[in-house]
Amino acid sequence: MIRSSRDRRQTVRARSIQSRAAARVRRGPATLATHAIAVGLGVREAASVAGSLRKAAAKAGVVGLTGVAYRKGRARACTRYSRAAVAVIALTYRPRRDLYKQAAARLALAA
Fold it and tell me: Which DSSP category does 18 fall into?
């Protein structure tokens, strides 16, 4: 496999995931992981940040909308938050890593 082609495919895949997430967030409430992907985090980093944001949401007393998410034919319960709610949660969130600090700042400004 040609390395440069592989790198290009990965870049295109990451950009398409991010743009889809951003479009989802613009349409209405979305999960915390979707909000994190929309501000530029990768899927693994977004999952990590989403877990921390859930804890911050409980501390801040922010309650989202319960819903159902489907992946690979399986239904899962999820909680969706508006951009304004995520901004409030992001202000409570205190990350340590620089990447996560930048993402928290973007989430706070996204409202």
Answer: H
DSSP calls for 46-108: HHHHHHHHHHHHHHHT---EEEEEEETTEEEEEEEB-HHHHHHHHHH----SHHHHHHHHHHH
What pTM value is reported for the model?
Answer: 0.91
pLDDT greater than 90 at residue 1? no
Distance CA 33, CA 21 (A): 9
Tell whether the model's pLDDT for residue 26 goes beyond 80.
yes
Question: Could you tell me if 95 and 101 are in contact, meaning their C-beta atoms sit under 8 angstroms apart?
Answer: yes
Distance CA 34, CA 93 (A): 17
Contact 36, 103 (CB under 8 A): yes
Q: For 87, phi and psi rounded to 5 degrees?
A: -65, -40
What total number of domains does the chain contain?
1
Q: What is the pLDDT of residues 37-75, one digit of tens each?
A: 999 999 999 999 999 999 999 999 999 999 999 989 999
Q: The domain containing residue 48 runs over which residues?
A: 3-109
